[in-house]
Amino acid sequence: MNDASGPARTPRQRSPFDRILGHQYTVFDGLAGMQVEDIYQDQRGLLWIATADGGVSRFDGAHFDTFGLSDGLPSLTVMTIAEDQDGRLLFGTLGGGLAAYDGRGFQVYTTEHGLPSNDIVSLQPQADGSMRVLTGAGMGWFAEGRCVERVTEIAGQSIGRVFDMATDAAGTTWLATMVRGVISLDGRHLSAGNGAMQWPWKFAQDTSGLLWIAFRYVGTEAVIGRYDPDSQQLDFIKADAAIEGTEAVNHGTRHVRLDDRGWLWMTRRGVLVYDGEEWHLFSAGLPDIHFSDARLTYEDREGNIWVGLWSGGLVFCDPVSVQLYTEDDGLPDREVQQLSEDHQGRVWIGTMGGLACLEDGRIRPVETGNKISELAIDRAGEVWRGSSENEVIKGVGKEAQVIEVAKNQNAEEIILYPDQDGRMRVGTTGGCFGRIEDDRFIAEKQGPTNCRIALQDSEGTLWVGSYGETPALHYCNKGGHFHASDIAGIETVGYVSALCDYEGTLWIGTANGLFAFDYRAQQVRRFTADQGDLSVNGVMALVADPQQECLWIGTSGGGVLKYDGRVFQSIRLGKSTLENIVEAILRDSRGRLWFGTRAGLIAYQPGDTPPGIVIRQVMAGRLLEMPQAVSCPDSTPEIQFHFQGLSFRSGAEQMRYSHRLVGHGPAEEWSAFTSSNRVSYNRVPAGQFHFEVRALDRDGLMSEVVSLDVQVFPDEKSVRLQRLEHMLQDADQDFLSQSQAMTQLLGEVAQMAETDMTMLVMGETGVGKGVLAQRIHSLSRRRGQPFVALNCGSLPAGLIESELFGHERGAFTGAVKRHIGCFERANYGTLFLDEIGDLPLEAQRALLRILENRYLTRVGGEQSIPVDVRVIAATNKDLKEAIEAGTFREDLFYRLSAWPVKLPPLRERREDIPLLTAHFARRYAQSLQRPVPGLGDGVVKHLQEYAWPGNVRELEHLIRRAVVLCQGEVIQVEDVPLAAEDEAKEGPFEPPVEAKFKGEKQQIVEALQASEGRIYGERGAARLLGMNPERLRSRMRVFGLQRPKKRS
Description:
By secondary structure, the chain is mostly beta strands. Among the domains are: 612-714, Sandwich (Immunoglobulin-like), CATH 2.60.40.10; 718-902, P-loop containing nucleotide triphosphate hydrolases (Rossmann fold, 3-Layer(aba) Sandwich); 925-1039, Helicase, Ruva Protein, domain 3 (Orthogonal Bundle). 14% of the residues lie in helices and 36% in strands. The protein is built from 15 helices and 75 strands. A five-stranded antiparallel sheet has the order 1-35-34-33-32, with no helix packed on it. It has a five-stranded parallel sheet with strand order 68-69-72-67-73. Helix 9 (913-927) packs across helix 11 (951-965). The N and C termini lie far apart (112 Å).
C-alpha cells in the first residue's frame, strides 16, 4: 500500500471540454457530402445538413435521408438553411437559387422571381414572416413567392456578395461583404486601420450589444473582431497562445456564434471557445477527430454541439450528459470497480491501481499500487476496503489500520458488507465468514467459496453470490448454515455478480440475466436480453434509487439500464466497449450519478429536454414518406407505421415507443413501451381511425403524442367478393338436426357464439366440426370479418409455424418474400384450427403465447404485431391422453377449452338421417340441374341400420354418388350400397374415389356424363367423385377416356 498524499502528481487543470464524448458522421454513414456549410434543426426536431458537394441530408438520429438533383434540388452546392412561418425548409444554393421544401417536393425561386442572384449565401427569417436573402449580388426580402425588396448598391457602388447581415445596439445595419468588407446600409465602413482585414464572414451580437465579427484573413495573430457601437471602435481579440493547438486557428475565423451563457464559439482551422475570461480548445477531448478545417458549430435544443467540417463531414458532441475522468484527472487507474460516499459527501473510488477521493469537483489519489476489490463506509464514516492479500484496511492515510483475515487461507479477494447492527462483516473467496470486532477478525462460519458479493436483506437473511459453481447463490439460515438457493432458474446460473434489496425484492445480477425474487411472496421474475429487456445478459452492478423510484443496472458491455418497474431504459455511455462495461454505480447525496467503467469514472447528467418523434413512413398499399394523413381501401392487407424518436443525446437505439390505433378495438389501448419503431395492423375494416405514438428517451422523458388520421374506405370489389364468400359459406354451413341432444347443443352454441371465448370442438371424424365452427362464426359479431381454416395435421412440422404466424423474407431457405400467416389473415375474424392435436409442441408454445398476449412475431421477424382473433380448435383425439403422453401441453388444453363442445356421432342421432339424406339429395341434384330424386321404400331404414364410422361426411359422399348414378328419379336401396358391418368397424371412412362396387372406369364415365364433361368446379366430375381434379385427369389417361362433348 503506497500513501499517495505526498509525492503523488497533482492533476492538471483541465478544460471543460476535455471529458466530452463525440462521434463523426461521413458519407459512409449516409451523409450527403463531406463539405458541410450549414446545420439547422427544424420545428419537429429533425436535423438538416447543407453540404457544398452533395446536396442536403436530413437526420433523425438513426437514418440520413439525402436530397439531390433527382429530388428537385436545383444545385448540389447548398450554403444555408432556414425555415419559414409555414414550416417549409428553405435552402440557399450556389447557382440554383432558393429551394423551398414542403415535405412533398421542392419549389425553386430564382432571379425570375426577383432575387438579386441565383447564388444564395445566407437566409435570415424576419419577424414579419418574410425572409432576408443574402446573395452573390446584394440582398433582398422574400415573401409570398417573390422578392418584394432588394438592395444591390450602397452609395452608388455594387455591394457584391453578402455573407451576413446584423443590426447593432445603436440601430445600424451592417453587411459582411466580399468586396467592400464590413459596410453599413448608410455607407459607413468598419476598419482596423492596418488593411489586414479580408472577407468578413459572420456576425454575432452579445447581450451587452457588442458585435463580434469573423474574418477569413486577419493577419497571423488576431482571431476575431469586436465592435462597440457606443464608441464605434473595432478591436481584435487574440487567442491565448498557451492553448495547445491555438496556432491551428490563428489565420482567421469562418464562423462565430454566442451561446445562451454568453460564451463565444469560433471556427476556422479548429474550434475555440471564449468564456469571457479564458480560451478553451473545444476539440481537446476528441483526439480521434481531426478538426483541421471546421466550418461552423451549431447547438441543438438538447444542448448537443454539432461541428460541420469542410472535408470531414459532421461531428456530434454531447458536452453535458457524459463526462469521462481518467488518470489525467487523478485516478490511480482508469478501471473503476468500487464507488462509495462518506458522511461528508466525498466520493471514494476503488480502482485496479489504488484508491482515490473525489472532493470539491477534483479527484486526488489516496493510495496507489493495490487493487481495491471491495469498498464500504461504516456508520462512523470510516472507509473500509479489501485487498488481495488477506487484509482489510480501515481508514486512510496515516490513520489506516491493516486487519489480517483468514491467516490460513489463500483468499484472492475480500468482500465487505455492513450488517443491520452497524458491524462490518467480512467474507473471503476461501469461504470464511466473520466480523471485525475490536480491530480483529473473528471467524464465525464456513460458507461457499469463490464469493463475489454479499448482502443482508431487510429481514436479516444473508445472501452470498459466487462464481465457478451452480447454483452460484446461497443464503444463510437462522442456524448459521449456508444453503444453495432454490429460486427457480438460479439452479443453472454459475456467476452471481450483484445483489440489491429494494422494496421487499432481492435483485440478483448474474451472467445469465437479472432475477427479481420477492422473498415475501416467494415469486421470481427473470429478465434477459433475449426477451428484449436487457441490452446484454451480463449484470455487474445493481443500485436502488428511491429518489427516482428506479433500479440502476450496470452491464458487461451494454452500458447502464434504468428500470422503473415498467420499462428498461438503455443508456450507452460511449461508442467503445470499455465505456459500457459498468462495474460500479453511485447516486451521491447531491443527486449526481457516477458510473465506474473500464474506461474511467463517468459523471452522468440526465437530460431535461423531452424527445421529439416523427412518423417517418406509412405502408398502406403504397409507401408514404412522412404523410400528413393516410387513406386506403379495406382490401389493404396491412397498414404499417414506421416512426422515429428524436433525441440525439439518447440515440435511436435507446428510444422506447408506445402506440395505439384509436377506433380499432383492442388496438385502442396504449401498447407497452418497446424498442420496436414499427407496428403493423392487418385487415383494418372500413372506418375513420386515429394513429397515435409517443417516445420515451433513455432518461425516461416522454415526447408529446404525434398523431395521424387514417381513413379506410370500402373497396367495392372486395365488398362483392365478401358477399359471394358469405353466400357460399351460408350454403355449406347448414347444421340440420331434429334430435333432442343436437337441438339442445345448437341452442347453447347460439348463446356462446356472441362471446369471444376460445372454443374446443371434439368429435369423431366426419361429425361436422368444421361446419359447426362456421356456424359459430356466422352467429358472432365477427361474421363480417374473415373465417380462416387450417388443418394442423396436413402440414409438415417445419412449416406449421410459418403457416400460422407468417414469416419474413429470408427467414429460412426458400423464404423469398414475406408471408402473412393464418392469424394475420383472420384478424378481427375467426381462425379454425382443425386437428389441433397434431400441432407440434414448439408451435403449441407459440400459440399459447399469442392466445395470452394477443401479439405475434413472424418467423424471422422482431416486430410484435397485435392480433384480434377468435380461435376455434377441433380434434378427434383424446387430448387428455396426449397430455399424459407428453405430446400436448396441459396449459394450452385448458386455454383452448374455455367452452368445450362434443359433437355426437351419427350413430347416436339416427333420427337425423332422413333429414340429412333429403338435404344432400336436394343439394347435389340442384348443382347438377337435375330433378330432386325421391327415396325409395326401405332406403331410410337401410341407412339407419348402418354404424356410420365416417359419420355425416360418409353419408354425404354416399348420397352424392347415388344422385349421380341412380336410374330414374328415385334412389333405391341398391343405389346406396353400404360396407359390411365388420368393415364399418375397422377404421375411418374414406370417400368412394376408387371403384369398389361397379368398377372405377365405369364410375368415371358416369360422372363425366352427369357433369357434361366438366372436370373442375362445383358441378365438375371431380367434385362428384370426391377426387382431386388432377388425380381424375391422371385416371382418365390410364383408362383412355375423353371428356364427352357438351350438349348444344
